[in-house]
Amino acid sequence: METRPAQKQRIVLVDDHEVVRLGLKALLDRHPNFEVVAEASNAREAVERVAAYNPDVVVMDIRLPGGSGIEACQEIAEKFPQTRVIMLTSYAEDEMLFSAIRAGAAGYVLKQIGGDDLVRAIEAVSRGEALLDPAVTQRIFQEVRKAAREEEASAFSALTQQEKHVLLLVSEGKTNREIAKALFLGEGTVRNYVSSILSKLGVSNRAEAAAYAVEHNLRDYL
User: Fold this and answer.
1) Measured in whole angstroms, how far is the alpha carbon of residue 172 from the centre of its chain?
2) Phi-psi sector, 109: left (phi>0), alpha (psi -120 to 50), beta
3) 53: closest CA among 101, 86, 97, 13?
4) For residue range 143-192, what is the model confidence (pLDDT) as tens digits?
5) What angle (nearest 5°) sits at the alpha carbon of residue 83, between those of residues 80 and 87?
């Protein structure tokens, strides 16, 4: 049975430097499954080329005249969701990285990437995978961890320090009497604290408050 050749991935190259585009085209044209169907030198041309050629992948410099590559990426992602965008950059800049991800980029790689690695990046995003250059992946993880910790900390921002201590003991299954003894408080005071905690956290009972405390790692903020 005769097998059909693999359908070529149609690619648009976007860079304001002609030499860069020529180099990328020469590299990608050697690949039997790639076809560079168009080129653009600025953000507006990039969107126009995508509209005209309906490519599978756009390889685009993040810094472009007439609007940034990030703006062009966002417009392409909104208008042509079937087209995947790989952002190229000379520097691993944190703000640019996160802006590109928010704009809908499927890949983010440094221009120092080797030819074989760029080919693999295009193949990966063509399969629907997301791809980050290893040089910036660690930055992503650091930012995600930071955001998670900030979110956890904000989860208890409405509570006073004493209320946090009371909540911790509630999460350990202590009764009001046991909490009062541990914190040298009256039982009535503890009841008031617990009522205030439930109200501030928007939960209806001690079990939900305890689950909330565990989920958001209360112990780390005492």
Assistant:
1) 35
2) beta
3) 13
4) 655 666 666 668 888 999 999 999 999 999 999 999 999 999 999 999 99
5) 115
CA distance 192 to 93: 49
Tokens in use for 71?
């703006």
Who has greater pLDDT, 60 or 120? Answer: 60
Cβ-based neighbours of 169, under 8 Å, separated by 6 or more: 178, 179, 182, 183
The pair of three-digit structure tokens given for residue 46, joined into one six-digit string? 């990039």
> What six digits make up the tokens of 136?
């910036």
Half-sphere exposure of 23 (CA within 13 A, CB side): 11
Candidates 102, 24, 114, 48; CA nearest to 70 is 102
Distance of alpha carbon 41 from alpha carbon 7, whole angstroms: 27
> What is the CA angle 215-218-222, rounded to 5?
170
What is the distance between the alpha carbons of residues 139 and 59, in angstroms, rounded to a whole number?
22
Output the six-digit token pair for 159. 């509570």
HSE at residue 161, side-chain half, CA atoms within 13 A, is 1
The CA distances from residue 159 to 148, 166, 170, 205, in Å, are 19, 10, 14, 16
Q: What is the DSSP letter of 70?
A: H
Neighbours of 204 (CB within 10 A): 9
In the chain the domains, ranked by start, together with CATH numbers, are 9-145 (3.40.50.2300), 155-221 (1.10.10.10)
